[in-house]
Amino acid sequence: MLDSSTVAIRPFNDSIYKNDSAFIYEEMPLQTETWWDRMWRKFWKFIDLLFSTKGGKQFFKWGLPAIALCVLGFFVYKFTGANKSGFFSKNGDTAFAYQIDEENIHELDFKTAIDKAIANANYRLAVRLLYLQTLKQLTDRGLIDWRINKTNAIYVQELAGNEQQTSFIQLTNYFDRVWYGETTITNEQFHDVQQSFIQFQQQIQS
Asked: Is the separation of the CB atoms in 25 and 19 below 8 Å?
């Protein structure tokens, strides 16, 4: 059945849309690519190309974890102070060849070890041995309680009220500068400080 109704044609009134902000669209200006954007685009394109190859996939699988472990090991080494603990050393020492722990500090032959360090002109090591020998003697006299996890500052505090505390502070400061600060000392300088250690040890033994 045919539709014979009359269709009323109304003109299109575009003013309604021109005045309504919801229907106003502005063309977005094209953004110019900077050299920084181009550099990163090329970089990531290179990375994508690199790891799409067989060699790149092998490197991603084995090389990156190895590098990550090396970086982690470096930071652990630096921030735990392992380079100052005596197991490693600069200046060509194999530094403290002894693992000083709570058992063998009382068994170590300090005289032999000190004499050997002096004969090798390893005065940093000799100072460390003299300091550890002093800690052992202080412990033997009951003046401090030596423990592997204690700091030198704690030993100084444990001597509070003792007439030897001031002398011990001076020896501790010297040891810290030589061992941790890696101060270079001459033969003459070492023998001066060695006498200070000997005098202090004689005083606490008397």
From this structure: no
- For residues 183 and 51, give the distance between their C-alpha atoms in angstroms, rounded to a whole number: 48
Cα separation, 100 vs 104, in Å, equals 6
In terms of Cα–Cα distance, which of 166, 162, 159 is closest to 144? 159
Q: Residue 98 in contact with residue 150, Cβ under 8 Å?
A: no
Residue with tokens 């505090």: 157
Packing angle of the helix pair 187-205, 123-140 (nearest 10 deg): 10
DSSP 8-state secondary structure symbol assigned to residue 14: T
**For the whole prediction, is pTM greater than 0.90?**
no
pLDDT at 195: 95
Report DSSP letters for 16-83, one per residue. HHHS-GGG---PPPPPPPPHHHHHHHHHHHHHHHHTTSHHHHHIIIIIHHHHHHHHHHHHHHHHTTGG
Q: CA-CA distance, 133 to 7, in Å (whole number)?
A: 114
DSSP readout, 97-138? Answer: -S---TTGGGTS-HHHHHHHHHHTT-HHHHHHHHHHHHHHHH
Tens digits of residue pLDDT in 97-118: 444 444 467 778 899 999 999 9
198, two tokens: 């000997």
